[in-house]
Structures are given as C-alpha cells and as structure tokens.
Design goal:
Helix content: 10-25%
Radius of gyration: 25 Å
CATH architecture of the largest domain: Beta Barrel
Largest sheet: 5 strands, mixed
CATH topology of the largest domain: Lipocalin
Number of strands: 29
Mean pLDDT: 79
Number of domains: 3
Distance between the termini: 95 Å
Number of helices: 1
Strand content: 35-45%
Order of helices and strands: HEEEEEEEEEEEEEEEEEEEEEEEEEEEEE
Strand order of the largest sheet: 1-26-25-24-23
CATH class of the largest domain: Mainly Beta
C-alpha cells in the first residue's frame, strides 16, 4: 500500500513538474514574442525618423578652449560657464566677436559628490540675471552662498547664505532675464534610510531677496534632477525619477505645490511608462512645460498637469529648449549626435520631429535658441566648441546657409 502511495505521489510529482516546465516554456515564448514586437516597433520608429530631413553642417562654430557647462539664452546673450572658472557671454547679433568673460571665484568650480548620482559639475550653478549680473554659487566651510556679480566689472554686488550642508544642484534663469530658480539639496541618513531634502529658491531681478518657495523631502537623494521657472515668474517646475519619471509644479506666490504627476498608462498617448525625466523648460507664455524623458519629449499643461503631447525618440532625451516664439522645441539626445527639432503646434497628440541635426558632439547636454528663434546653439561632451544652426522657417523648410559676420539672420 505504501509502495502504491509513493508511486502515485511520484507520478503526481512528475505531472506537476511537467506542468511547470510547460508553463516556463510558454512564458519564455511569450517574452520572445513581446521582444520581437518591441524590436519591430523600434525598427519602425528608426525607419520613420530616417525619413526626416537632416543637417550636418552648422552655420557657425564658436571655438572655446575649455569644457563648457549647460548653455542658455538670457535676453540677447548666449551664456555658458567654462571649467576654467570663467563665464562666457556672446551677443546673438555679434557671434563673430570675442565673448565677454567674467572671472568668478575659483570655489565655484569645486565639484561635489552625492551617494546616489553621478558627480555634478558646479558650472550648472551659474546663470545670468537681466543680462548685466552673473549669479553663481560658492560652497564654503561655513555653508553655501549665492553671489551676484557685475557682468562688466566682475565686482560682487550681493551675497546670501543658504545654510550649512546645502548644495546647489542647479541655477536656471528665464529667457527675459527677470527670474532665476535654484535647487538646493541636503542629504543625510536616519532610521536606517537615506533621505534628501530639497529647497527651491527664486531670485527676482527687481527684488533684493532670495526667496524659498518650496521644501521637498525624499527618502533618497538623486530623485530630483532639473529645475525651471516660467517667464512670468509665477511657476517653478522640477523633474526627477522614482521608479518612473515625475514632475512637480509649484506656485511661487502661494509658496505651495500645485500638483505632482508620474504619468503612465492612460495618462500617455504613445508610451506606457516614462522611466526618467532629465530636463525641463517652460513655454514663453508659461502655459505649457516641456520635459525631456528617456522615452521622448513630453508636453504638460501647467494648469492641469495633464500630458498634452508626446514626441517619441530613439534614445534618451538629455536636454530640451523651446524657441522664444513658442513654435519649435529642440530635444538633445544622450549617447548619440542628434538634436531633433519639433513643431509644438498641431492637433495630433503624438508628434514627429521636422528636422534632425547631426552635430558630431555626442551626448547633447545643452541646447538654446536665439531671441529671434532663427538660430539654435548646441553643446555636447565630445568637443568643447559650441555649434550654431539655422532653424526651419514657419513652413518647415531648413535654411542652414552660411551667414555673414555680424549680420543678423533673416527668417525665410
């Protein structure tokens, strides 16, 4: 009887084992089929993007002798900070002229590390206020300070002490030069968990104070990445990642969080998951905010926080900029030489680029439009030069032709 029972149990075990093996084979087959579908979809995307007109010759190249940080347009100037301790300022209407160099305190260039992200060079903690004032950060033993320096003479005008243990992740100015948003972080370890506190500050050109508008606490540092402030100075947006990309919108007047979104599934039109958010910028009318993500470029409505449009991309989007007329958005890709130009208008919620720039600069960590929206500056990690490109006209045609020295470009 025992033998019959053991034999029966052995047979049952073999049946269960066979079922498990069949289940594993079915799962493996399903994963293979899913991979094939995703690969086919990716190939279709690459094939679609290969039909987009491309340019590989810039109209001008600004030769620099040092590695540059992120680039931006403040008023009529193209601004960037170099690893040599200088801030470089070009006038968009006189790019052939030598840039104005503002030498800053060498303590600005001391990089700091945190325990969850890559080292962030402090030349992102530097921007321009109202075209005539440079705002930068000093990390000293007594704490972190925000310093305002005259762009012409280099003399210090104002200084605020943020506090001990606070590190600046980024300073970002508006196109009109009236406002600056800053993100500061302090990390620690408590109750067996890493935590990070973030403060968002706003500096106004017509005010004499650095104002903290929001404090955000997270269990781990590194979730919040880039910050941006709207042209009207009313809104501050910060993006990051926490199992998926998320965005926080804050009201600088009420000093409170308006909304926080981690879009997925039905919130999106094309993809189902956002992975990471890497960069952010506002439209000129402050009604929309554009986010660079691992799955492409996204546009959010500032009032509701809903995704209004997506532009799928073949690689991670590292940087984003919107033209001053609000018509174009530039998406710089990471790990490749491409910057894609997209039209922001259109009824289709899933858009495609209208132009691809083959820059030869590798990962594109900086893009900036000129004030008249006719030119785009790009900056990458492969070489130190900044390249200037002519943008498509309203009908979508590309006009990357050589323009004469000091001659303002004409939009066709």
């Amino acid at each position: 009887m025992c033998r019959c029972y053991l034999k029966k149990m052995q047979t049952r075990g073999e049946i269960e084992s066979s079922r498990v093996r069949r289940g594993k084979w079915r799962l493996w087959l399903a994963l293979v089929m899913l991979g094939c579908v995703l690969c086919c979809r990716a190939d279709e995307e690459w094939e679609d993007l290969s039909r987009i007109p491309s340019e590989s010759t810039p109209v001008r190249e600004l030769v620099t002798q040092t590695e540059m940080g992120s680039i931006s347009t403040i008023g009529g100037r193209l601004a960037t900070a170099g690893q040599d301790g200088n801030m470089y300022l070009w006038r968009w209407d006189a790019l052939d002229n030598e840039p104005n160099k503002v030498t800053l305190d060498e303590r600005l260039w001391r990089p700091f590390w945190d325990f969850t992200t890559f080292p962030l060079p402090d030349n992102r903690a530097c921007t321009l206020l109202n075209e005539d004032r440079v705002v930068h950060v000093l990390h000293e033993r007594r704490g972190t300070s925000v310093v305002v320096t005259d762009a012409r003479s280099g003399s210090e005008l104002k200084r605020w002490l943020v506090g001990d243990g606070w590190k600046c992740r980024e300073l970002r100015g508006t196109r009109n030069g009236k406002y600056i948003a800053g993100q500061f972080i302090r990390t620690g370890y408590s109750a067996g968990r890493d935590y990070g506190s973030h403060k968002l500050y706003v500096l106004k050109a017509d005010a004499n104070d650095l104002d903290c508008v929001l404090t955000i606490s997270r269990e781990r540092d590194g979730y919040l990445r880039d910050v941006a402030i709207s042209e009207c100075g009313r809104y501050v947006a910060v993006v990051g990642t926490c199992n998926a990309g998320f965005i926080i919108m804050a009201d600088t007047v009420a000093k409170k969080k308006l909304w926080e979104r981690m879009p997925k599934g039905e919130d999106l039109f094309y993809n189902s998951w956002t992975v990471n958010f890497n960069d952010v910028c506002f439209s000129p009318d402050s009604e929309r905010v554009y986010v660079a993500g691992n799955i492409g470029l996204l546009c959010f409505d500032v009032a509701t926080g809903k995704v209004t449009k997506e532009w799928p991309m073949p690689a991670r989007v590292a940087s984003v900029a919107v033209s001053h007329d609000g018509r174009l958005a530039a998406a710089g890709l990471m790990g490749c030489d491409y910057v894609y130009i997209c039209e922001t208008r259109g009824a289709n919620p899933v858009g495609q680029p209208i132009l691809g720039l083959i820059t030869g600069q590798k990962s594109m960590y900086g893009v900036a439009f000129s004030r008249d929206s006719a030119l785009l500056a790009t900056e990458g990690v492969l070489n130190t030069n900044i390249k200037i490109w002519k943008m498509p006209g309203p009908k979508g045609e590309s006009t990357n032709e050589e323009i004469g020295p000091n001659e303002p470009p004409e939009r066709r």
